[in-house]
Amino acid sequence: MGFATETLAEIGPGSNSTLAFDVARVREDFPVLQQEVHGKPLTYLDSGASAQKPRAVIDAMREIQETCYANVHRGAYYFSQHLTDRYEGVRKTVAAFLNAASDQEIVFTRNVTEAINLVAHSFGNGFAAGDEVIITEMEHHANIVPWQLLRDRAGITLKVVPIAEDGSLQMEAFEAMLSPRTRLVAMTHTSNVLGTVNPMKNIIRLAHKAGARVLVDGAQSAVHGKVDVRELDADFYAFTGHKLYGPNAIGVLYGKAELLKEMPPFLGGGDMIRSVSFAETTFADPPHRFEAGTPPIVETIGLGAAIDYVNAIGHDAIAAHEAGLLAYATERLQQIEGLTIHGTAKDKAAIVSFSLDGIHPHDIGTIVDREGVAIRVGHHCAQPLMACLGVPATARASFGLYNTPSEVDVLARALEKVKDLFG
Ligand SMILES: Cc1ncc(COP(=O)(O)O)c(C=O)c1O
Q: Are strands 236-240 and 251-255 parallel, antiparallel or unpaired?
């Protein structure tokens, strides 16, 4: 996976060109990357939190607002029908992106957090005291708190799969946790802190064997490589637009048609009903049953443009580019004395969390910012994982398709400055 060693050597540290695609050319698509911060070129290494947007996304969102904006699913007039077609067209784009069997399996949400809450409320509606949901130590709060709320409502038992030293999942512990009471395994595909990519196909196979369904939090995965929900046989798969070079306030929940069909509504209101009287309301079929109120119309169009953009570059090219960046960043940062990388699993996305001996991550973040370097510092919405790692916080560099090996060098030099300052 990624750059072959000779390819990396060919590129060499400090080079901006990769063989996967022309990253210099790609960077021109992202207006924000042309900015300076504190008089230094912006080195944006926080795509794991939210990715920058290409001009194609910005333009698509502006274009509909300038030329044909209207509400969707409501008007008999041209603009409303035109925009409804485009909005529903994005549902098809997303279905193809995930290789779903049908666009009716694609529910638009505000983000992955809302998608998980939807499943917890609606699919979890049938869970009873003693039923079990399995999560892992590496989950984002978005995939912990909704299950704790369900535990408080319904008396379910929450089980947590431990991680190994290298940040990979302890698969034997997971297998041992599966029981006839396991209703759902809710698990991140890729850890936003450790970068660990979980062996999701195998996890889903084992869960299904035990009679459990699986919800995959794909917030960090849909970005880095091809996701095929049918190949995975995922029951639910959630991702979020703003990490995929699209806008914020738009997310996606994929759900198998047979499951969505049986699930009660999450939110009630306009657009999700078949008929309403004061005595009784009947509900629309999925996916509209789960899309109450005016949806994020402009953002959905932006998401469609983002997926088109990613598809045009190609998943394999992006994955190869990012694997090369990960290999180089790991090698370069490991050369810094006193630096510890958290998460060294074999299968890993381009996310590097680290600590510097004796220096608080917030100090690291503040000082590298003066060099124009944007990294995330803190608990990364994964406080239980921080407790497992025995640290209050980490610093994290996360890479996207527009990052370059020379930006890794900029980060490494900035970290050396941090060390010099703290003696
Ligand atoms: C693994 C993971 N899950 C869930 C989320 C939540 O995403 P959102 O805030 O878009 O709902 C994130 C965001 O960082 C994440 O990394």
A: antiparallel
**CA–CA dist 321, 312 (Å, integer):** 15
Distance CA 158, CA 69 (A): 45
Mean local confidence (pLDDT), 390-406: 97
Closest CA to 31 of 20, 42, 15, 22: 42
The whole-angstrom separation of Cα 252 and Cα 303 is: 10
Q: Which pTM does this prediction carry?
A: 0.95
Q: Give me the number of domains the chain comprises.
A: 2
Same domain, 359 and 300: no
The residue whose C-alpha atom lies closest to atom 12 belonging to ligand 1 is: 219
Task: Look at residues 205, 244, 234, 191 and name the one whose alpha carbon lies nearest to residue 350.
Answer: 191
Tell me, in angstroms, the distance from the centre of ligand 1 to residue 191's CA: 10
Of the candidates 411, 417, 407, 420, which has an alpha carbon nearest to the alpha carbon of residue 33?
407
Find the 384 Cα to ligand 1 centroid distance in Å.
15
Q: CATH number for the domain including 21?
A: 3.90.1150.10
In our burial notation (b when 16+ CB lie closer than 10 A, e otherwise), range 81-106 reads ebbbebbeebbebbbebbebeebbbb
Q: Name the phi and psi angles at 381, rounded to 5.
A: 55, 40
Contacts of 300 (CB under 8 A, 6+ apart): 87, 90, 108, 250
Pair 413, 303 in one domain: no
Tokens, residue 394: 């980490």
57 belongs to a structural domain: no
Compute the mean pLDDT over every residue in the chain, rounded to the nearest whole number: 94
**CB of 230 closer than 8 Å to CB of 204:** no
In a domain, 58, yes or no: no
| Residues in contact with 53: Cβ distance below 8 Å, sequence separation at least 6, in sequence order | 30, 32, 245, 246, 247, 302, 306
Active-site option among 154, 177, 259, 381: 381
60/20: higher pLDDT? 60
pLDDT at residue 134, rounded to an integer:
98
Atom of ligand 1 nearest to the CA of 113: 11
Return the closest-CA partner of residue 292 out of 317, 316, 268.
268
Mean pLDDT, residues 139-148 taken together = 98
Is 68 among the catalytic positions? no
Q: How far apart are the first and last CA of the chain?
A: 38
Residue 332 half-sphere exposure, CB side, CA atoms within 13 Å?
24
Which residues surround ligand 1 with Cβ inside 6 Å? 111-113, 140, 142-143, 188, 192, 217, 219-220, 240, 381
In the listed set 262, 291, 312, which residue is the last one of a domain according to the structure?
312
Q: Could you tell me the residue range of the domain that residue 394 belongs to?
A: 5-50+314-421
